[in-house]
Amino acid sequence: MSADALVVGGGLGGVAAALALLRAGRSVVLTEEYDWLGGQLTSQAVPPDEHTWVERFGVTASYRALRDGIRRYYRDHYPLNERARAWAELNPGAGHVSKLCHEPRVAVAVIEAMLAPYRGSGRLRVLQPYRPVGAEVDGDRVTAVRLAHRDGGAEVIAVAPYVLDATETGELLPLTGTEYVTGFEAQDDTGEPSAPATAQPMNMQAVSVCFAIDHVDGDHTVDRPASYDFWRAYQPPFWGDRLLSWRCPSPRTLEIVERSFTPNPGDDPRLVEADQRVNPGDGNLWTFRRIAARDNFVPGAYESDIALVNWPMIDYLEGPVIDVPDADRHLAAARELSMSVLYWLQTEAPRHDGGTGYPGLRLRGDVTGGADGLAQAPYIRESRRVRALTTVTEQDLSVAVRGDKGAVSYHDSVGVGMYRIDLHPSTGGDNYIDVACSPFEIPLGALIPQRMSNLLPACKNIGTTHITNGAYRLHPVEWNVGEAAGALAAFCLDRATTPHAVRADGRLLADYQHRLVRDGVELRWPDVTGY
């Protein structure tokens, strides 16, 4: 199978990369190993983590089209009440984590609609569910990628002049021999204030298997998980209590705090302050990542709110899932942890009314699409990261380092992003790192491998460090990275040039950046300050 470009991985970066190539008139083969396109927004079931200015600026035009499409889908197909229907900045879930919390299937529908005309024309072929299992390389060029169907059968060989790695874990990097790093870099190598003295390649952020719940009449308690006793007693040394409790460190202060949990609080959706600059929003875990607020819909349409469980207690700390021989065992254990959290919530969790357990909590696997009731895919926060021409470091964007100067501005900017430097507890036993960040730019140099000439990272696998990945890993930034990578491949095909040449030649770079701006990619921030 051949095309102008092969995009391996159908998460947000992969979809954005494919769209950029297709808009430029190119043909694309796009692969995805799970049943839904959209990655962290859909198969991983994570509502979008976005910055405080998202409704006005700081995202690409195509990402805004995705957000607008999600709101339009609710207005066209869901029984919103009149108040919600008239809400210009509709937040269907009225979650505190984002100004647009929504059910994963809606994003799937909108992404499929964005891609539909290109499928119809034959310029886009989607291989699903397929994942990469091998590659052929000639010097510094990838010549072919072998793809296997998740459920068995004949392999597919895909060839293209440009190959984009938009997988969640940078799977093409080891398959193609592309140089990359994992885990913590050493402070001597990066100069980062928060880095350890020596490199820790196996020390990576926790993965999480998310799930959706509502709260209705009846007893919906799941079977007791086989590993429940282990997780019930599990206590990280810095946690302040057992993992399965309402107590845990505050990410920003590391102070041990107690969170609340009140199903269906009856709050006014329009009064929810979804702005992490003002409030991280995690005080009441029910509303933190709520994806359907029943009071946004006509009476009786929803028996209950639907809450998405992506909470501290489901972070899996027992080992990494990248470059280890027992990754499948760790992923299975992460799913067991999530089921144990659900069982604890239903049977033993201290209640807000003084009782114990919430048997009315119902697992909503129909919302997330997972065969076991959980999300289809684990939430991967940290990928393999390519050794790139530019590596973004903590001192490039940390408010503590940069002060009022703002983040470093790059001559080769291909987009913008903003999120706190937010690292979850890690497999090496580290606590949260969650520090203020300046609104930042995405340097083209971070998207170009030092050696490989036709392989481009298009997800969380760009030239960041373990620390700065914590700011660059979120939904709109991943989309912008993918869009820039896809546009770069198309530009190189049009001009018969290479990514390295585009960055080195001022005229080519200016032409490429002009194309990005024309397509609605913002390259600079207005005068705003970090948080």
UniProtKB/TrEMBL annotation:
SUPFAM superfamilies registered for this protein in UniProt: FAD/NAD(P)-binding domain
One Pfam family per UniProt: FAD_oxidored
InterPro entries linked to this entry: FAD/NAD-bd_sf, NadB
GO biological process: NAD+ biosynthetic process
Origin superkingdom: Bacteria
One GO MF term attached to the UniProt entry: L-aspartate oxidase activity
Identification of the protein by name: FAD-dependent oxidoreductase
Organism: Nonomuraea phyllanthi
